[in-house]
Amino acid sequence: MKRIFGSLAVLLVVGSSFGARAETEPVHDLIVVGTGPGGLVSALSALEQAQAQGKSPRILVLEKRADLPKSVDFRDEAALKGSAFSRRQVIGVKPEIHDALKRYGIDLTSRKTLVTKLEASGKPAAGPQIVQYMVQINELQARLVDIARKRGVEVSFGSSVNRIVDTDGKG
Predict the structure, then answer these.
(1) 148: helix, coil or strand?
(2) Dihedral sign (CA 41, 44, 47, 52)
């Protein structure tokens, strides 16, 4: 599967073949751990690929947080602790990723901006500016959760993976 976001998404392929389940097979064909943009886009891409083959996979996305954050107070160290970045952080989406997001109805064209690369010293680097589309990560995440759910992907908040058990004996 192509990784189109730099963030980590853990994919657990549970079933042996999408859409074909016997009573003894797992309830889900694919489990994705994490509702970040990488995890949600991975789940949507897997769904599209399976549907293109005429299959109807059951896909589950797990998130340990109880809900999407509405906002985070940057002065609240407890709220920021354990987080790689504030969920209100604005991220730059590259044009090729923007094109992929358009497939899901997310058009960030009005947020297009030019970004100048910086050298390690902090000075602007020589060369052309980079086109990126700026969006708050929690806004993008909320939109992707909504799209995933509307397309039949199950998204579960307040969940965690404690262990993985191999039930078919194939490794």
Answers:
(1) helix
(2) negative
Q: Who contacts 105 (Cβ-Cβ below 8 Å, separation ≥6)?
A: 147
Partners of 131 in the β-ladder: 114
How many angstroms separate the CA atoms of 116 and 35, rounded?
30
Mean pLDDT, residues 1-21: 47
The amino acid occupying position 146 is: D
Sign of CA dihedral 70, 75, 79, 82: positive
Buried b (16+ CB within 10 A) or exposed e, 59-92: bbbbbeeeeebeebeeeeeeeeeeeeebbeeebe
Q: Give the model confidence (pLDDT) of 113-165 as tens digits.
A: 887 877 878 788 888 778 888 888 878 888 999 999 999 999 998 887 777 66
Q: Which residues contact 16 (CB under 8 A, 6 or more apart)?
A: 25, 168, 170
